[in-house]
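Job type: complex structure
Entries:
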Amino acid sequence: MGNVKVQKLPTIRRLPTYLYKLSEMRKAGVSIVATPELARYMNLGEIVIRKDLAVTGVTGQPGVGYKVKELIEAIKSYLNWDNSSEAVLVGAGSLGSALLGYEGFEEYGLRIIAAFDASPDKIGTEVHGRTVFDVERLSELARRLQVRMGIICVPAAHAQEVADRMVAGGIRAIWNFANVSLSVPDDVIVQREVIAGGLAVLSVKMNRKLAGEEDAGQLG
Amino acid sequence: MGNVKVQKLPTIRRLPTYLYKLSEMRKAGVSIVATPELARYMNLGEIVIRKDLAVTGVTGQPGVGYKVKELIEAIKSYLNWDNSSEAVLVGAGSLGSALLGYEGFEEYGLRIIAAFDASPDKIGTEVHGRTVFDVERLSELARRLQVRMGIICVPAAHAQEVADRMVAGGIRAIWNFANVSLSVPDDVIVQREVIAGGLAVLSVKMNRKLAGEEDAGQLG
């Protein structure tokens, strides 16, 4: 079971993108951002921008905008990204390697501290600075490292077995990139990533474009 | 600019997951699926399931359920996945390789026919059966191949340049995995994938879990 109102999910998905833009602005010395500028960047209407940011508890000043620093802190606090979480990743294939090499995660409060794989070719190697351990040791090491989050990047056929090992190792939140629905105890949260979901949005946008209909911007 | 009502995006994102489940059922010889079964699989309420599937124009029979074959066809038709689209992919690093190796895409009507990269180490090699061409040839080959869709998997700093080459080559829909907002002409559609968006949803679910709040299932 998860725990968020379905209606809020698109907003939450967009928050890292706001955070990225705001961090760039702060680095450039900008202290105030107006709603229309955020609307252009996000390719969304100003009303959507205001509703999105309202979830963090920060409201912009009419005619002025949002304080960049305050908004960054509010978003990080809402996402609990002010405290870094540690995770382990299972499946050091191409997708797993891509995630291990993604530099943005640390900024988002996620540190992947170890990787696991079942392939003898991969066990003992390093991928983007993280040692790849034998998946047989997943439960034991997750427990010893006191990690609460696990990322699954193995083929669908092995995902449930990996999830079981994670749960046995005390992991309570699973980010699942395998194309399968996992069975886990009620106190474990699963977030399933379906990459084809983005392709579906692009396909529908293409169809609508041909039909000349309305707009939902670059993000969806 | 894109073209879909913001409210519909979560539904559209979930459609590939329904499609996956329904295809599995059809392979197993199942001809009718009841709403509660789909609700369990999606980890969502039955009302959400009915609203999701209503976008395809198919309505279930009360007390019986949906015809599996009819629903598959309706989803594919809604997503325009009954006609296969061809795409080129730029950036044959780990994420690009992961996408080239993703077997699910063909089922979703997407065929990636060629890859491009700027690195001499990669140009001329094959990744999952696709030849990697020099990105210098992107516009020319996209035009000759009459491809309409491009997938960007390069680092953010190079994404705009790649998008410009795609547009020059006649590409009209871009699936952008780079962490940057692209400037494109109004008649080009961009779908930006922000992987950290899923991490944001998982983080918020974890926080809510600690606080004992409501549920949004495995997908979000």
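Summary: Chain A touches chain B through 79 residues (CB under 8 Å). Residues 9-27 of chain A form the longest helix (19 residues).
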